[in-house]
Design goal:
heterodimer; A: alpha+beta; 12 helices; 46% helix; B: 44% helix; elongated
């Protein structure tokens, strides 16, 4: 199995819940799609060409200030569980993870990781530069990824066209190649049935929403990924401004919905939150979707101050570490589904117990 | 990561398409197998994965077929990679950066529909002064691309690659 201690912080700094608006927003991600000039795009490349692109990117990264010390993971040398683990950490895309048995090995596919920035190599595009920040912080994420873009763009010849901008394999990404997405928790809007209104019309302003794992994934645990849909015809700053404005609006709506729930249905709300906590604390078997939905309830309770002893960091950690590949990694072996649900319940129970006793000790110490 | 789901419609086959819908304020997720998805007029996961633009490209239909005046016919192959408009329509992906120049006219229309614009107004970029052409121009890679071009019967491209190889040798 992959040795994640190789990664300075396991690539999990975005879990810290230290960024702005962390009570509602888990993370902000910006990615830039880039390709090398005069070189077939990923789908038409031979194995040799993939390897050469990888060598070229690695050489450029080694020469750069920002990626010189990056950890490099070759995906074609990792087994399925490890690739799934990186996907669950939001460090690689589904495309690069190639999880389906029918899919070929991700030849020449690699991940370069340094702090909160990363480069995926030989994904749908030759390069996908990305930055991942805690909370809602488009500005910081943009500054981070821009440095990587500038440094690599000085060392590699990117495919660029005066009219169409940065050229990408799929024309949905052409122009800026920029996709910014914010992972936001919206239980208040779902409970008050206002979610439709909040997300209605997103496409009209060039935005879209997806589930926890991006394109094609389900909405679970009331987590929505809001992102820009269009990449051409607006500058990078304009795209980020538009998304930022909508995010602030959706956050205000969510805050308002929570206040309405607290005012009009306090008992119903408290009951929902504490039931979720009780189930997580005592269940002996938990399915993934069930765990996500219960964690959503506890998260709502914690951010409203109803549940006091559980931190956002712990809840973020639970979201990541209760996923199948993470449970297998902790167990040190591949587990069948009936074992995964038991391990998941064990892990959640243990984590919540530790968290609650730590909080009690802290209270006792300060009294 | 969700576990494998049975089709919500027939309950027999494995769901390959995930549908998220907001109904009456709640998010409803359905899983459909390829057969039930097709019956509902939805593309299967395979088709969607292969052509993220699937629906739009299909809707564009003949719009993407250039007029003879545009210079790029259905069979015109990109000098960079040998891809044709038919390849693009089938895969939803361009073959290389030169495809954007070769198929500029039909692409402009598609980009306007996708993005509401066909003009980049973001950061401008100039490649480094002395671009290292070692990737695209090594003799080995030229030979490899020549072989691929011949396999694909993209003879125009093959001829150009052969000339470039001769120059080098």
């Amino acid at each position: 199995m992959i040795d994640l201690s190789l990664l300075p912080d396991g690539g999990l700094r975005w879990l810290e819940a230290s960024g702005p608006g962390s009570h509602l927003v888990l993370s902000t991600r910006i990615r830039l799609a880039r390709n090398l000039a005069r070189q077939p795009f990923e789908r038409r490349m031979s194995a040799g060409e993939r390897q050469r692109v990888l060598a070229k990117v690695q050489a450029a990264a080694a020469n750069s200030d920002v990626l010189r010390d990056a950890v490099a993971l070759r995906l074609d040398t990792l087994d399925l569980v490890d690739r799934r683990l990186l996907l669950e950490r939001h460090l690689i895309s589904r495309e690069l993870a190639r999880l389906e048995r029918s899919e070929s090995e991700p030849q020449g596919g690699a991940l370069l990781l340094h702090g909160s920035t990363a480069v995926m190599v030989n994904e749908e595009d030759h390069l996908r530069l990305q930055s991942l920040e805690s909370g809602v912080d488009l500005e910081r994420a943009w500054q981070q990824v821009k440095v990587v873009d500038t440094e690599l763009g000085q060392r590699l010849a990117f495919a660029f066209h005066p009219q169409f901008g940065y050229l990408t394999s799929c024309p949905t990404n052409v122009g800026t190649g920029l996709r910014a997405s914010v992972l936001i928790h919206l239980p208040g809007l779902v409970l008050t049935k206002e979610i439709n209104k909040a997300l209605h019309g997103l496409t009209k302003v060039g935005l879209t929403y997806r589930g926890l794992y991006g394109e094609g994934s389900e909405v679970v645990g009331n987590f929505f990924q809001l992102s820009n849909q269009t990449t051409l015809g607006k500058s990078e700053e304009e795209l980020l401004e538009d998304l930022g404005r909508i995010i602030r609006h959706v956050m205000t709506m969510e805050e308002r919905a929570r206040q309405v729930l607290l005012r009009d249905a306090p008992t119903v709300l408290e009951d929902k939150v504490w039931r979720a906590f009780g189930l997580l604390k005592y269940a002996r078997s938990l399915g993934f979707e069930e765990a996500m939905n219960l964690l959503s309830g506890v998260r709502l309770g914690a951010s409203l101050g109803l549940i006091k002893n559980v931190s956002m960091y712990t809840l973020n950690k639970l979201l990541v570490f209760t996923q199948p590949a993470h449970l297998c990694a902790v167990a040190g072996e591949e587990l069948p589904e009936d074992a995964v649900v038991i391990r998941r319940a064990d892990y959640v129970r243990r984590t919540l117990d530790e968290e609650v006793s730590r909080a009690r000790r802290a209270e006792g110490g300060s009294a | 990561m969700s576990e494998k789901q049975l089709c919500t419609q027939c309950g027999e086959r494995e769901g390959v398409v995930t549908l998220n819908r907001i109904e009456g304020g709640t998010v409803r997720t359905d899983h459909l197998c390829a057969k039930c998805a097709a019956e509902k007029g939805i593309q299967t996961a395979d088709a969607v994965a292969d052509t993220p633009l699937g629906g739009l490209l299909a809707a564009l239909g003949t719009d993407l077929s250039p007029t003879p005046a545009s210079g790029a016919g259905e069979a015109t192959a990109c000098p960079g990679c040998g891809a044709t408009l038919t390849d693009f329509r089938e895969s939803g992906h361009l073959g290389c950066d030169l495809c954007y120049t070769t198929f500029a006219e039909p692409l402009e229309e598609l980009l306007r529909r996708l993005h509401g614009s066909a003009h980049h107004v973001g950061t401008s970029y100039s490649p480094p002064d002395a671009p290292d052409r070692s990737i695209e121009e090594t003799t080995d890679s030229l030979r490899e691309r020549l072989k691929q071009a011949v396999d694909r019967e993209a003879f125009e491209l093959a001829a150009e690659l052969r000339d470039r190889l001769r120059e080098r040798e």
